[in-house]
Design a protein that fits this description.
With about 675 residues, the chain is mainly β. It is about 10% helix and about 40% strand. The protein starts with a helix and ends in a 24-residue tail after the last strand.
Length: about 675
């Protein structure tokens, strides 16, 4: 009989072997780890030693393997995985250098200097340095003194400047400032009339104007901290009941998540935030997982404000491409941001110096029990028999919150046992406002481009357009987009009193031009099908798009912000898969000119029938602010859904087992 020591040694050896296999065989789509980020930094700095070169890391992310290579490995995960590589953009000698680092070879395998228009993702360090410059600038301090403000009670933020036809541009930021006197809700107390621009290359104030003095909005009524608000109070809310232990049925292996009948990979990117990959659903009849989505993430977020005045016209943000959703991720708060029992996941990105930065609890994964019904039926028409079957709705949610300046964006990916994937966005935070001399709307005689929501406070009209990159692989990567048009027809049989009915006409999009769609113009269903796979009755397997509210741009097509944001011209686009076409607003979004974005790619009008295709969906909000948005905005939610359509032979939730509930006690008077 083996000794206890030998048994323990054997167990430890097996554990060590398994651990080494796990570490040496990461998933090809795993985000870069802190150790890998440090390795990337060391390799780049070896080629550009800091005593000789001054460079900054603007973006470091996974250089994902070619899709066929990844799919091949996923079919045989015990084989050697593809090489781990990183895509790096560094700013050096006033140029963007694109570098691909091979981590296994510990070397740079490709490099090029970008010569096009636009600039890379801004770093947090650049934003902070610009603010620090402004707060120490003597003319600005004099302007504050003139207004009776103390610099110790002033906070500043940054704004990108966009592009308005200039032939030559430089990396610049605007620095608007706010008064903290009497409040921490800084965005509601703007210091109007001062314009500060900072040259990021020279790190100096490049432009300064003090044009006018406007009345300062009051601090009264802007407090939102629970410990500071004063009566009268609103209702006390009940917290969600505590749920002991972890979510039953949830398994996380590395970055692969398994729950109910779903399996997917979860990543984190400095620009996109959460990235969902290789989402597949288990089909018990076929006894295998079937592909649904290869890769999905938010590609860009465009927010044009609608005040064309000299002080405001430039405010047209590209939040993903300029500031980064991952860089803007905030730590989530248990029981408030995420319910009891949620599993928290950290995020990592490279700072300006290339060193890893941790965002603790950047994402959470939890079961949602909304109290809704997944399906039910009562059979009451059979004599002497009553049958009732009910199944509660339960889903799995992946959540992240990005705080970009004044707005907080709640990003949800929801997986349902029915096979649906729901995409949710919640908008909350604080409005962007400007100071004005008005205290009542009757005083306003000119265009103010917004709503008077409090004394001396105009909340400016604006839009939010969130564009998703959805590389759908419905039961395989050869897919087509089918427009199922609903058409009205007249009844030809004179013996029937009905005069009309509607039916469907199927239209397959053959090229990109066929798949540019503005929703709401005509009744239609959009279905991504696999024309090579059919159900037993002969239907093509597919997933259909259930859109949210259809909103499109209202800016003129020749307006500079809209040229840059041409990807919002349609709610739906379909393009052939191209590994380099990731960012709807272009790789270099800051001061971009619209010459490298989804609209340009789609203009090639490539074939998309029975191809590996990508769907791009834009969710839009036109925001006319109201007083209920003050001082902190209740969450405004929107979303859309991808729902199986002839994907399964029958309802995939027919045989779900209902949860056990203790018998309800009988109550007697």
């Amino acid at each position: 009989m083996a000794s206890p020591f030998k048994i323990l040694f054997f167990i430890f050896s097996i554990f060590s072997i398994l651990s080494s296999i796990t570490c040496s065989n990461p998933h090809p789509l795993d985000s870069l780890t802190p150790d890998e980020l440090l390795q990337v930094r060391a390799i780049v700095l070896k080629s550009y030693p800091t005593p000789k070169y001054k460079l900054t890391f603007q973006y470091v992310g996974l250089e994902e393997p070619d899709k066929p290579v990844t799919l091949s490995w996923l079919s045989k995960p015990t084989t050697k995985p593809p090489p781990r590589r990183a895509f790096v953009i560094v700013w050096l000698n006033k140029q963007s250098h694109e570098i691909v680092v091979d981590l296994s070879k510990r070397s740079i395998i490709s490099e090029r200097v970008y010569s096009g228009t636009g600039y890379p993702l801004l770093t947090i360090e650049e934003l902070e340095a610009a603010v620090e410059l402004a707060l120490k600038y003597k003319p600005f301090l004099a302007s504050l003194k003139k207004r009776g403000l103390n610099v110790s009670e002033v906070a500043c933020t940054t704004q990108t400047i966009g592009w308005y036809g200039e032939m030559k541009t430089k990396r610049q930021l605007k620095v608007p400032c706010f008064s903290l006197e009497g409040t921490v809700n800084m965005y509601l107390r703007p210091i109007e009339g001062i314009s500060i621009a900072v040259d990021l290359e020279e790190m100096k104030v490049s432009e300064y104007k003090d044009s006018f003095v406007a009345p300062m909005p009051k601090a009264e009524g802007t407090e939102y901290r629970a410990s500071m608000v004063k009566p009268p109070f609103g209702p006390r809310l009940n917290g969600a009941p505590a749920a002991p232990g972890q979510i039953k049925g949830l398994k996380i292996d590395g970055n692969t998540v398994r729950w109910a009948n779903w399996r997917f990979h979860l990543g984190f990117d400095a620009r996109a935030g959460p990235v969902i990959s290789t989402a597949s659903i288990y089909d018990p009849d076929k006894r295998k997982y079937r592909q649904v989505m290869y890769r999905g993430y938010i590609s860009e977020l465009f927010i044009p404000y609608q005040d064309p005045s000299e002080e405001w016209y430039h405010i047209t943000f590209f939040d993903c491409g300029e500031f980064g959703f991952g860089l803007s991720a905030v730590s989530l708060e248990p029981l408030n941001d995420c319910p009891a029992g949620a599993v928290f996941v950290d995020g990592y990105y490279a700072g300006q110096d290339g060193k890893p930065v941790q965002v603790k609890d950047a994402m959470c994964i939890f079961e949602r029990h909304p109290g809704d019904i997944m399906w039910r039926h009562t059979e009451a028409e059979i004599p002497n028999v009553t049958i009732r079957e009910v199944r509660p709705e339960v889903s799995l949610v992946v959540r992240m919150v990005a705080t970009v300046g004044n707005y907080d964006y709640i990003l949800d990916w929801e997986f349902k046992p029915s096979g649906s994937i729901k995409f949710g966005v919640g908008l909350t935070g604080v409005l962007e406002v400007k100071a004005a001399p008005y205290t009542h709307i009757d005083q306003i005689k000119e265009e103010v481009y917004g709503t008077l929501i409090a004394d001396n406070t105009i909340a400016v009209h604006h839009d939010h357009f969130i564009t998703y990159h959805l590389d759908l692989d419905i039961d395989g990567d050869a897919n087509s987009l089918v427009k199922t048009n609903l058409v009205t027809r007249r009844v030809k049989d004179k013996n029937v009193p009905r005069k009309s009915y509607w039916t469907v006409e199927h239209e397959t999009a053959k090229t990109e031009a066929d798949a540019r769609i503005k929703l709401g113009l005509s009744p239609a269903e959009l279905v991504v099908v696999n024309p090579n796979k059919r159900t037993k009755p002969g239907n093509k397997v597919g997933y259909r798009l259930l859109p949210g509210g259809a909103s499109g741009p209202l800016l003129a097509p020749d307006d500079y912000p809209q040229i840059r944001a041409a990807f919002t011209n349609y709610n739906v686009w379909v393009t052939p898969y191209n590994k380099s076409e990731k960012w709807a607003g272009g790789l270099y979004a800051d001061q971009s000119r619209g010459d490298d974005n989804l609209g340009v790619w789609s203009s090639r009008d490539r074939d998309i029938e029975n191809k590996d295709i990508v769907m791009w969906y834009t969710l839009g909000f036109h925001h006319v602010p109201c007083q209920e948005d003050f001082p902190v905005m209740p969450t405004l939610s929107g979303g859309f859904e991808l729902r199986p359509t002839n994907f399964f032979e029958y309802s995939p939730v027919l045989k779900t087992k209902p949860p056990f509930h203790a018998p309800w006690p009988n109550c007697t008077a």
